[in-house]
Design brief:
mainly alpha, single chain
Length: 79
């Protein structure tokens, strides 16, 4: 099952839930996200500072690549 199919199924399955149950679903989603962030933080603090710096460099590089994707097409230079 693809991610899109899973998302669609979740939307369909939650349509008829009460407000209280929707809040519980939302709480569970927040729990899952928090759990992931805790694991990432734990891994970060278990590393040596130099390892963390190289990770940050890689994260920054990925962020910049995403930020400037299709830059030339989005902002063509007039010459």
């Amino acid at each position: 099952m693809s991610k899109a199919e899973i998302e669609k199924t979740i939307m369909e399955e939650t349509k008829d839930l009460s407000k209280d149950n929707l809040i519980k679903v939302l709480d569970f989603i927040h729990f899952l996200k928090t759990k992931k962030h805790r694991r990432v933080r734990k891994e970060f603090f278990e590393k040596k500072p130099s390892e963390n710096l190289s990770d940050l460099d890689q994260i920054s590089l990925v962020h910049l690549e995403e930020e400037f994707a299709n830059y030339k097409e989005l902002y063509p230079r007039e010459e």
